[in-house]
Amino acid sequence: MAILAGSAGAGAVAKSAAGHDWTRFNLDARRSGSVPFATGIGAANVSALKRQQVRLPGTVDSSAIYLHGVTIRGATHDAFFVTTTYGITLAVNAANGSILWKWTPPGYRDWAGSYRITTATPVADPSRRWIYAASPDGRIQKLSVADGHAAWRVSITRLPQREKIAAALNFANGHVIATTGGYIGDQPPYQGHVAIIAASSGRLLKVWNSLCSNRHGLIAPSSCASSDSAIWGRAGAVIVPGSGKMLVATGNGNWNGSTDWGDSTLMLNASATKLVGNYTPTNTAQLNATDLDLGSTSPVLLTSSLVAQGGKDRTIRLLSMKRLRGSAPHKGGELQTVSTPSGGEMFTAAAVWRTTAGTWMFAADGGGTKAWMLKGSRLHEAWSNANGGTSPIVAGGLLWVYGPAGGLRVYAAKSGKLVTTLQAGPGHWNSPIVVDGRVALPEGNANDHLTSGVLDIWR
User: Fold this and answer.
1) What is the DSSP string of 246-303?
2) CA–CA gap between residue 448 and residue 454 (Å, rounded)
3) pTM of the full predicted structure?
């Protein structure tokens, strides 16, 4: 199932940094993308990393997750877990790149090679015994870490041919959290919605619809008069620490401030039964008409009181959480607006690094990478460059940014100085993880509709 290449040093692990997990996209439920523990990789040794390429039965247009020291097939392993665009989920031995197990969704042959895909990163259960993954049939499945068998499968859409699970899955309060969007071309009917699933049983507990939000539960898309309003930003639902509230952003769609919430930043209560905060740009009608999705990125939780929201309109908005509160419509009122890194459309998640000196935000778009420091209630540019990238992460004082044209660039996070570039092939929305002396990065583009792919592992 795997063809291994360039495996020199495959067994080398930084022992002093071992023993941490990476359980979901951007590491934590708040999607910080910032690693608070030692990884065993820093500026002094990153250039010495050796790459292994693991051949996969599909493209992984997302990121890997990682569990250390788990029992798989009766033995203890450190393992990466990935989901391909056509829904195959695999456990990959982090030490040597071998495939430990593979789970293929029923009906795989019906959509393999077609437009029907998922780009959702899986999420691990806190017990470390299960992972949850998406597939193009509109289902979420609970898979055993030990052998890959499915304990349950649940549908979160009545029309998987139109509603896609694009954003990363999340987990909070015993619940798996997933969101839906549409496919390229915005072919109606579909609606962006948030689905809350009981992790223990697989029961679909709640659905919050961003269009026809007065209707509670899973709806047939054609039964709602409005279409679109996808929740498709890479980070999906962002969890607010403490309260468990959820932040999501929607794409182009109708907005009326009561039941339809296209092109908005939204806050839901922890059970997704109620809208408790909202923000919509004053030019929402223009954004909708020109397909400039506000929700091409997910909200960025900077502090307990500040949120940043990027978008396809080449703008990042700094928002006050206090001004978001309530179900009454809130239009405008941004604290600040800044340009995206290169002034291009933004499709990536930002990383937030909290240091004793202050809070940093790092973001990339197709033509640049930029760092800001938060001072008071303002973002101040710290450095920038003209190298495009996907969703960055911060680990070991380094900023890791994958360029879709190829190459994983590693910068000194505070200065922006390029430390090294690790060789990698081209991709799309793929992003790296850095943990336990290892780096994992999938390559490839979901829109190529391939049934093969590559996972790069550096050690």
Assistant:
1) EEEE--SB-B-SSS-B-S-EEEE-TTSSSEEEEEB-TTHHHHHHTT--GGGS--EE-S
2) 14
3) 0.96
